[in-house]
Amino acid sequence: VNPGSYSLRQRTRASSNMSTNVAQFNLSPTSFLKILKGDITQWSIDGSSDAIVNPANERMLGGGGADGAIHRAAGPELKTTCYDVPEVRPGVRCPTGEARITPGFKLPASHVIHTVGPVYDVDSNAPASLSNAYRNSLRVARENNIQYVAFPAISCGVYGYPFDEAATVAISTIKEHCDAIKEVHFVLFSDDIYNVWLKKAGELLPN
Ligand code: AR6
């Protein structure tokens, strides 16, 4: 085991292994941000306690997009476990901006941190809600001694957040709240979002 080495299970035999395409930035003297393209359901850090972040909805019982993919890859135990997360009000297990943790079950990552980003057109304070989703996900990781965390572009799919604005909130929040986290990875599904994130990280972070 090479601590800190990152793997996308699907790609390990491919010559275009994504680990060669990882852009790395410093978040602090002791933490890194890595930006890569790929499928977050395939992500893990070999031999470490790690977590992927699920861009869920408040019910926390699965859905479309990355949430659907994560539930399919984790297997049905994930939904059963989510079902047992107490409701804070009817139908709401994880209010917007908060985060909850479960095991990863069949996923390569050991944990899933479920968070809920804002619906861009509905939330009157979308930047604060999006920032809370990143901040609380990192807090939950820290509380569970998880030092490697992978995020997708929360709210940038079904929830309609403009990519450039989302990247600013995501990267600046992570920079401010990365204490005790060794590596934060963004695993981004599409070229356009990947390119926006790379540019924004170049503007906001030294490397
Ligand atoms: N790996 C990485 N990123 C992915 C993957 C994947 N496997 N699949 C999609 N994405 P979305 P949201 C990207 O819609 O906007 C669900 O129904 C996707 O291209 O998954 O926060 C939930 O249940 C986009 O860039 O999440 C909620 O109801 C980003 O992940 C709602 O959608 C986020 O898109 C949440 O909407």
Automatic annotation (TrEMBL):
UniProt domain Macro: residue ranges: 20-205
Pfam families from the UniProt entry: Macro (PF01661)
InterPro entries assigned to the protein according to its UniProt record, in alphabetical order: Macro_dom, Macro_dom-like
Official protein name in the record: Macro domain-containing protein
Source organism (scientific name): Ambrosia artemisiifolia
